[in-house]
Amino acid sequence: MKLISWNVNGYRAAAKKGFFDFLKAHRPDVCCIQEAKAMMDQLAPDLANPAPYRFFLNSAERKGYSGVAAFCLKEPVSISDGFGVKKYDAEGRVQEIEFKSFRLFNVYFPNGKKDSDRLKYKMGFYRAFLKHLDSLGNKRIVVCGDVNTAHTEIDLAHPKQNEKTSGFLPEERKWIDDLLDQGYVDSFRHFNTKPENYTWWDLRTRARSRNVGWRLDYFFVSRDLVRHLKSAFILKDVMGSDHCPVGIDLSLKP
C-alpha cells in the first residue's frame, strides 16, 4: 500500500500544474494534501470528483487558507475532520481516516514564523494533537503531513543560522522528540540517515536549484507498524509547489 503526502500550496493551482498527471504516474492508494486552500463549492466537477479516487476535503472557515484533503482509491471505513478543539479545527488542519488495518492522520501543522501569537498557537496545536494521539491508545497509526519543523541539524541546510527561527526552535524540535518518545518512528530516517534530504525550498531565493532546503514533511508510524514499513521516500524532482511529495510503502491492505 503506497501512501503519499504533499503540501501542494493550493489544490486548484496544483491541478493546473500537473497534479493529476502525478497521481496517474505514481498511483498511490492514498494521497494526502495540505494547504488545499479551497472549499467544495469552489471546485470544478473534475476536482470535486477526481475518479478513480474518492475525494475528501476539510476546509478552513476562512476562504483561501489552510485546509487538507485526501484521495483514496478505496473507500475508508470512516473519515472525520479535526480532533475536537474548536480553535484548531476552525483552520481545517486535520483529517482522521480509518482503514481496516490502520488509522491515518493527514495534518497541516501551523506555521509559527509570522509572530509570537502564531508560534504560541502552533505549540498549543502540537500539544493538543499529541494528547489526542495519546487518547487513542495502542492502535496502528500513521501521521503524515507538513509538520513545519525540521527535527535535527541534518534536516536543514543552515542549522546554525536558523537556531532562533521558527521551524527550528528548541521547543518545536522537542515536540518531535516527544512524539518519537511516545512510540512513533520517523519513517524516512528509519531508512536514510544522510543529510541534504529536504522537502521544502524557499521560492523567493530560488533555493531549490541549490538544494538549500528544509525537511518539513514527514510520515510517522507507530512502532507496531514498523515491521510493515517497506520503504520511505522523498520525491524531490516533482515540481508544482515549494514542497515536494513524500511517501511510504506498507505491506498492508486498506
State the main characteristics.
254 residues, alpha+beta, Deoxyribonuclease I, Chain A, six-stranded mixed β-sheet, 14 strands, 23% helix
Description:
- With 254 residues, the chain is an alpha+beta fold.
- The protein has a single domain, classed as Endonuclease/exonuclease/phosphatase (Deoxyribonuclease I, Chain A).
- 23% of the residues lie in helices and 26% in strands.
- The protein has 7 helices and 14 strands.
- The strands form 3 sheets. It has a 6-stranded mixed sheet. A 6-stranded mixed sheet has the order 5-6-7-8-12-9.
- Strand 6 and strand 7 form a beta hairpin.
- Helix 5 (116-135) runs parallel beside helix 6.
- The model has no long low-confidence stretch (mean pLDDT 97).
Structural class: alpha+beta
CATH superfamily, please?
Endonuclease/exonuclease/phosphatase
Widest beta sheet: strand line-up? 3-4-2-1-14-13
N-to-C span? 7 Å
The count of β-strands is: 14
- How many separate helices? 7
- For this structure, what is the CATH class? Alpha Beta
- Please tell me the overall pLDDT: 97
Radius of gyration: 17 Å
Low-confidence stretches: none
Query: H/E series, N to C?
Result: EHHEHEEEHEEHEHEHEEEEE
Shape: globular
Q: Total domains, how many? A: 1
Helix percentage: 10-25%
CATH topology: Deoxyribonuclease I, Chain A
- Provide the CATH architecture: 4-Layer Sandwich
Proportion of residues in extended strands: 25-35%
